[in-house]
Design a protein that fits this description.
It is built from 14 helices and no strands. It has helices at 10-13, 40-67, 74-95, 98-103, 109-122, 132-160, 163-167, 172-187, 191-199, 203-231, 242-251, 257-268, 280-289, 291-307.
Length: 308
């Protein structure tokens, strides 16, 4: 199923729409461990999202609740509150995949424990005195979230257009989870950067925190893919490699290495704004057709009608 027909010129991508959390749910009973038939490496490379994102998005929510008092623009405040709601739902949805992985013989706890430590301890709150030092650490994390959101929006735009996954028979429930999440990342892609610009906006801080975020993401992702391949009970001698990732990018089942590299100078450009990336109209169109998102909308409407 192609999603490219929803693409529109970049000007429409900057349209402002209210953000809302969609209370989605997914049933994993019929989803195989290798949800992309015949390609465990691609399935596991993308499965890293289920291990990495819940802790990261809970961290986003924690940091943004601290920064709310610093927001002086009411529309931006509303966007940040909508962002918080969506990110909390993303964390919950990916968390719910973990019991399914365990049922199939792959316990993710050794990896998720490391990710939890990173976000809760290394990037968590520090015992800093009130004032300048505490404010500095808050701004560092706000800037780091803006850099990470550049890549979540990049991945969201990619998965909305990854037609090769459809052609190869990807599990429809997993594909809907990925595209629902990706569409919301595209939908709210400007919020983190706009917030950083509003409360700080320093270019040197943007570059410095980008370097930290990019390095951490690459490290965690390759470590996660290696963990999955080495601990998959159905594989003998499974291993992850950059060559396999590059091959998946050329085949269209993973983001291409070239596209990822080209995203770097865009973010580091002084003229960068996330509205230049992806398409709001495409994201909204997918959310209007997503089985999980439409079911959530219907359930919310029924609850609303029942309360009248």
């Amino acid at each position: 199923m192609s999603h490219k027909q929803s693409r529109v010129p970049g000007s429409a991508a900057s349209e402002h729409i209210p953000l809302k959390a969609r209370d989605v749910s997914f049933s994993w009973a019929d989803t195989p461990l290798h949800w992309l038939p015949g390609d465990p490496f691609t399935a596991h490379t993308i499965n890293v999202l289920h291990l990495l994102l819940p802790a990261g998005e809970r961290w986003f929510v924690h940091v943004y609740k601290q920064v709310l008092p610093h927001i002086r623009d009411e529309r931006l405040r509303a966007d940040v509150i909508g962002f918080i709601g969506q990110e909390a739902m993303h964390a919950q949805a990916h968390d719910e995949v973990l019991p399914h992985l365990r049922e199939q013989g792959l316990d993710p706890t050794p990896y998720t424990a490391q990710v939890d430590w990173l976000f809760e301890k290394l990037l968590g709150d520090r015992a800093l005195p009130p004032g300048r030092a505490r404010h500095w650490w808050l701004m560092e994390r706000v800037a780091m979230i803006a850099a990470i959101e550049h890549y979540t929006a990049f991945l969201g735009d990619w998965v909305l257009n990854a037609e090769e996954l459809d052609r190869r028979g990807a599990d429809p429930t997993m594909l809907d989870l990925l595209r629902w999440h990706g569409a919301e990342e595209v939908e709210h892609r400007s919020v983190a950067f706009d917030l950083f610009q509003h409360v700080d906006g320093g270019y040197r801080r943007r570059v410095r925190t980008w370097a930290t975020a990019f390095t951490a993401l690459v490290f965690l992702w390759q470590r996660g893919a290696r963990f999955f391949m080495e601990n998959d009970p159905t594989l003998v001698g499974g291993r992850a490699s950059f060559r396999a990732f590059h091959r998946g990018g050329r085949a269209g089942t993973l983001p291409s290495t070239g596209a990822m590299l080209r995203s770097i100078p865009r973010y580091l450009s002084r003229d960068y704004h996330p509205s230049q990336e992806g398409s709001t109209a495409q994201a909204v169109a997918y959310l209007a057709s997503s089985p999980a998102a439409t079911a959530a909308e219907q359930a919310a409407a029924q609850r609303s009608n029942g309360s009248v």
